[in-house]
Amino acid sequence: MGSHLLTAAYSGDSTHKSSTSSARTLTVDPITTQTSLVASSTNSTFGDSTTFTTTVSPTSATGSVVFMQGSDVLGTATLGSGTATFPAAKLPAGNHSVTAKYTGDAQHALSTSPGVAVQVAKAASTTGLSVFMSGQGNSSNTYLQAKVLPLGATGHVTFKNHGSVIGTANVSNGYATFTAKGLPAGKHLFSAEYAGDDNHRASSAPTSSYSLAPLSTTTTISPPASTPTFGDSIDITATVAPIDAIGHVTFTRGGITLGTAPITDGTAILSGQRFTAGSHGVFATYSGDDYYAGSASMGVPFVVAQAATETSVGVSQSTTTPEDAIDIAASVTATNSSGDPVEVHGTVEFFADGASLGSAPLVGGAASLTNQRFALGDYDITARYSGSTDHTYSTSQVTVLTVAKLPTALSLKTSASSVTAGSPLELTATVAADGATNVTGSVDFTAAGSSIGTGKVTNGVATLEVSSLPVGTSTITANYSGDGRYLNSSSQAESVEVTPIVSEFALTTTPEAPRADDPITITARATAGTPTGTISFQVEGDSLADVSSNPDLLTQHRFTGNFLAGSPVKADAITQTQPLVDGSATIQVPPLPAGKYSVSASYGGDAQHAPVTLSTNTLTVAEASAPPTPPTKPETPKPSTSAKQSGLAATGAESPMLGAVAALTLIAAGLILFTRRRKAAKC
Questions:
Q1: How many angstroms separate the CA atoms of 102 and 30, rounded?
Q2: Which terminus of the chain has fewer CB atoms gathered within 10 Å of its CB, N or C?
């Protein structure tokens, strides 16, 4: 069976050579087989035996058959007369498809049977439970053992008490064991549940009941080592035996629960208890736990002493006036045996020189009498605490109260050490009276011994704003007048330097560009503020030829009004002084000859303003306008070609007519200028 290469070889003869044919392939196919499979049972339970029988045709086939479940080999059997049997096969629980695979031989091809469906059910199991204990109280152990059959079962068992899981254990050789430690006293219901495995069903053991009895205990209270004081933090200690008892102890006094405390190593401590002064019976009750029964102690007396107190007294002002109402306050403190503060309650009575002023209740350890008034003199103030059931009484030391007018100290401050005349200056006077702010009255401010104003004292401060101090150094003082509580006082002097105001003026001429026939107005105006006083004006001729050649030109014009009737200071100058009105002064100057002039002015100052020299302005007076000339018909010269071209260029004309108009305009302007020069020369 298989592929074969066949050739033919000729050996040759005396006349022929040998030769070999080309190879030819011959394939010999195997004999086709068919395999079938049957099972002794297709429905069984885990642990049952199942026999599988296979038949291979043709029956001449030899070799072996492999029995398989999926890809897993179950076993092998040898063919005999076309049949092979695999007996006593134990399959796991579940649904299986089993096949038989004939492996073939030298002449027969391999083949596989169709799958045979076999269903194997899980085997039943049984579980039993055994319980036994050792030890006592919370150190006892409870042993739970479950027996699971059949012995081949695997998996785990869950143990429960009253239906709640307390543990699990794996099954080994048919047993699962769990140890429950420290179960509480009382009735217990134990159960065991086998969860099953791949081949066995789950099962449960019947519930097993078991009871544990609690153990007895004793509880005692330890009395205090020393007598506590009211306000002490008292620790109450209870002892519970046996020492391994756990839980808590409840402490009571006179049927009132004080609190609970946990037990640690047989001891429960309730800390931070505070009792009123007197005797108190205290009890302790142990509530028991899961293993031990409860118990109660006998009553133990706790005797608490009164807390010692100290009283102090004070006044809101140790020195006061008959008009002032003062407050008297007392403070009462108490301490326990450790010196720690203790709350105080009750009343305090106040005395002045042994006479009762009244009583007041303590609130937060303090009591007070308010709005107390006294006549002039010295008083011994004391306070007496009456005590209480929890506190001893006590009397304060003496506090001396003096009733008299109080001294004051006055200080003066200026807002600046140097100011410009007319600027506001802030004066602040502060009345100091041992920190008091209820000072009343007024403060008089003086400069050079004269009053410059008065300020009302508010919250110990009086202010005044002045702006009329004269130029120079002013020495300012403040004087407090005093009131019903406070004595008068004066401040140290403060010096303030008052500097004059430097004003700025604008000097203007109207018109700005006059002609010889125009009257002229010259004005000096302050650019800020309204200074008073006078402005001195001066108009002085410049060194032009037509003026310097005849210095009497200015004097030839006799001015009236405010100008001097005689000659001016200089032959070619005019001076005049005018008062400032609303910061402005003006002079009127008659028409001046053509030429250049210097216009200047100076300010003479006043009480608050410094003298100032104004900037000098230059005034140019043009020649007077020419009188109108009767119209004449001038001969029009015939312009040359070059004149036409220059006229066109100057005017931007685009035609000969426009150029002619421009030429006539230039000629006319020349005639007018000539006429004005002739007239000016005559003058």
A1: 14
A2: C
